[in-house]
Amino acid sequence: MRVDVSAPNRIDLAGGTTDIYPLYLLMSGGFTVNVAINVKSIVTLIETDDHIYRLCSEDLKQSFESDNLDDLPISGPLGLLGLSLLNFNPARGLSVTTRNDAPPGSGLGASSALTVALISGLLKMRHEEVSSSEIVQIAADIETALIGVPAGKQDHIAALYGGMSLIHFGFKGYERCGYNKSDLDRLQNMIILTYTGAGHFSGMNNWEITKKFIDGDQATRSKLLEIRKVALEMRKVVEIGDWNSLGKLVSAEWNLRRSLAPGVSNSTIDSMILAAQSAGAISSKVCGAGGGGCMVTLTSSEKRSSVEKALCDQGATIMDFEFDSHGVTTHVTP
Questions:
Q1: pTM above 0.85, yes or no
Q2: In this predicted structure, what is the pLDDT of residue 91?
Q3: pLDDT for the residue 203
Q4: Which domain CATH number covers 10?
């Protein structure tokens, strides 16, 4: 059997970090707003009869093989694959090949999308069905084991469902409200997605924020609660399709986030945002936990060309994308 799986990455607009356990339990619930895009994480699984496990990451140019499941890597570039296979314990030999469309450290949730795609493929090979919430939990747990700090869940939800997601996190896990109205095209036309030129590791930024919150740092608590408040305000804006009001909320989220930890922004990012604003951009924010990776900029159609030029002049790379409404997709070949 061969199983090909793809899952979309996401642009996060507001509320990041409030999706991390146990933070959302300590702040009366978290809330995030994100939208899936057709920048994909792709997995191909092929059963073999030689009882050998082969792992290959095409974009990272890493590979490994062994006839012993216990020898598979559980850390490093292939750790995500090794941990996932150990969790599902395939009965036969298996070849796993992965690829991410996004650059490394993009902040687009690529590793989370890859984990969702891999889990979905392994379940298909086992002819096993589990709930969406179980897939999200398994994926978040595997990522937590890999990076050594708690992982959030909004990226897995975007990869699984696709579309625009308004997500509440609380005692019952998560509750997602999807938004798929036709005027979502207008929002897509407002967004410029760029790669800032350097990757980042979101786990440590988020962990520093989490530790400070739990330790009772009042500045961190106040700012994170404000970030949740901005996300809740954004939900109202999204629900009525008031895209003209989105920009000030994106700016508010970014201004709060960049003050949460020293590594969230840097001089390169600041220069790019300033240049975009000078060219007429409405607002900008870095995707994910910051420190590098991709950046999203909102602009009017009239200013788009000049804003794109300003960003490129500062060293940013424009990334083509469209919103993805499908979520994870699986194709089985006997």
A1: yes
A2: 80
A3: 60
A4: 3.30.230.10
